[in-house]
Amino acid sequence: MTTTVKGNKTYYLVSATVKNEISGATGSDADPKATYAEEETLTKRIYINSDGPTLLGVGLRNGDVAIKKLKSSKNSVLTATIDRSKGGVAKTDENADIEKDKNGNYYYRTSTGQKIIIPKNAKGTGYDKESAEYKNSNGSAAAVYIKLTPKRCGTSKVSFAVYNKYGKQTGKIAVKITVRSDGDVFKTFSFGGKSLIQKHYGDKNYINYGRKVNSYDYNLSTKKKGRLVVKANKGYKIVKILVGTYEKPKSIKGVDYDKYSNTYYDVDNEYGSSSAKGKTNATPHDYNGDGDVLDKVYGNYEYNRGMKYKTVKSGKTIKLGQYGSNSGKWTTTEVDKDAKLGNRTTTIDEVYYSDYAPTNIMVVYYDIEDKYYGVTSTTIYAKAKQPKGKKSKK
């Protein structure tokens, strides 16, 4: 899942408008992301976590290729630098790529998300390539990433100027960045008596006390079940708690998957055939119960065949997952059809397993003062249940 406000998340300055499944509110940051609208908006405010760097993705287009004069109004809160290890630039003399919306209008967008409508031609069969709107467009574009490094909790304004391929400034953009800590939001966030957030340095009740970040036992629980307690500090409200685990592998038959019919199928044509059968937990889930697996719910497409989530209440005992991703055992048979040599068959038996099973806990909270919905996600691990049969490590 990607709906986490922890470090290393990438936010985008211009993003599609989304609808919050929990509140019904719309906006560019209305997590968890569900249904996308056609319009795009310029993000005015972003909330990031204090536990690590966060990337701000800036998609430049219509001839814009660079940003300059980047600064943070409060370096004591966060610093802003361009991450030159990511992104890219594409310069061209061609016009911008033209799109068509549901109302039949032809358009392109600027770097700030503004929609520029191009007049239709005289026949009404396309757009007018002689119009000023089209001639003034340019297909040059760039992807720039700004690394936001938090220093302490607070709010800073990050601003920069946008330049086109000719070196001319075309605009200036500013966005408010608020740095928060999970400790600010949660009074208690624990499983089996162990805190899932570090309240302060040296917190002995923290699940990772005495452990290194890259060690095998980071976020590892010695308990298979325990009470999950989530309580908010004053000024915040817990809206929903979701627990995701990988299911027990189930029987499937088919080498390929069709998301529209939610079925597996084998392939057979004049050149050969391919078939598979066995058990796997890499299966899709109808999260919102509408009968298909085509929606984006809680930041994840249903057909991506990931964890299955359920809603729980604070104080309830939950069981941790027993299986890792893609666990199972199946056989794939491939037949190469050759008129001269005859059919040649290859059979592959596979067993996959994980040593540890993840359980993802996702908490949706509401900031009463700022009227903002946020999502915190954390994953804890337990020893995984191993499928029977020969094991081949991933």
Describe this structure in words.
There is one protein chain. This protein is an all-beta fold and 394 residues long. It is flat, with a radius of gyration of 25 Å. The N terminus and C terminus are likely disordered.
Q: Which structural class fits the helix and strand makeup?
A: mainly beta
Using the CA coordinates, give the radius of gyration: 25 Å
Query: How would a textbook summarize the main sheet?
Result: 5 strands, mixed
Strand content: over 45%
Helix content: under 10%
- The chain-level mean pLDDT equals 82
Low-pLDDT residue intervals, each spanning 5 or more residues: 1-8, 20-38, 389-394
Number of strands: 32
What spatial form do the alpha-carbon principal axes imply? flat
Oligomer: single chain
Question: What's this, in brief?
Answer:
This protein is an all-beta fold. It has helices at 132-135, 182-185; strands at residues 10-12, 14-19, 26-27, 36-42, 45-49, 54-60, 64-72, 78-82, 88-90, 99-100, 106-109, 115-118, 141-150, 154-164, 169-180, 186-191, 194-195, 225-232, 236-245, 250-253, 256-258, 263-265, 267-268, 272-280, 296-297, 300-301, 308-312, 316-319, 328-336, 344-352, 356-367, 372-383.
